[in-house]
């Protein structure tokens, strides 16, 4: 059986993976007596019945242990290049650059997940400001809708932060990945007209409530899933409010500035937001966002719509894979915790 202390040894599990199919009578004893290197808490369970679960848990443990030591020394050229790419994507589609920055900081720079998400908000705010200013210069920000979406987004972020502690993230990821795919299909087949960028319609009570609801959904889903609010807001503005992709992207970026700054400020006290590093990433992101916004305004609307639909499919695929891995880890932990009948 596993050590009675209830700790699972990562290095031993790695050895067991190599020896899979070759386990002999003395193998379990070796595992029981070996020293602990990297551990995650699990309950004792029979070795034979939970090998797959232990392998999954070990992979998760190695991923957790690899980020516990804090951010590694950064590569200036790498950070500037990735920051610029994140800003370019944000400027093109009106989405947060966290879609690119967070995986880079976690997988390449080996930052803890929370610090990566919090610090990326600083860069997102700076790139969103540059992108929004560019769109605003060409009249592509719906300023009448802006305050209602902003209030809804801030309220939704608070609600989402409270709800996320009570829900399994992998469930949300699997469900929302399906929603994103359906949204991508709808966006791709929504007819748009080329020509000048249109302006938002006159404000009515119904529209004001609709903007509040759109901001609320953006804030809640952003907090629950750790995605940029633009991935929610832009499709909503295009498909439900009849915005052109330009107007939707510009409005999304304008709202994103304050929401990202608020999120970064709230996570400063726990030590998650590293402002100096975020500013470095943000400077490159701001340049990329300016270029992305200028390119977007030159592209035909149908091209921009199809490119955004492709981005949604990419995000949905990545989110589904993350949710599926989370589900496997969840089931594996349940198997490891289960005592033999």
Word description of this protein:
The chain has helices at residues 10-18, 27-33, 51-65, 76-93, 98-108, 113-137, 146-163, 169-188, 205-225, 230-239, 245-266, 275-298, 301-337, and strands spanning 7-9, 39-41. It is mainly alpha-helical and 341 residues long. The chain is built from 13 helices and 2 strands; from the N terminus they run βααβααααααααααα. It has a two-stranded antiparallel sheet. It folds into 2 domains: 7-65, no CATH class; 76-324, no CATH class. Helix 6 (113-137) packs antiparallel against helix 11, helix 8 runs antiparallel to helix 13 (301-337) and helix 10 (230-239) packs antiparallel against helix 11. The two termini are 14 Å apart.
Descriptive labels:
disordered N terminus; two-stranded antiparallel sheet; 341 residues; 13 helices; 70% helix; mainly alpha; 2 strands
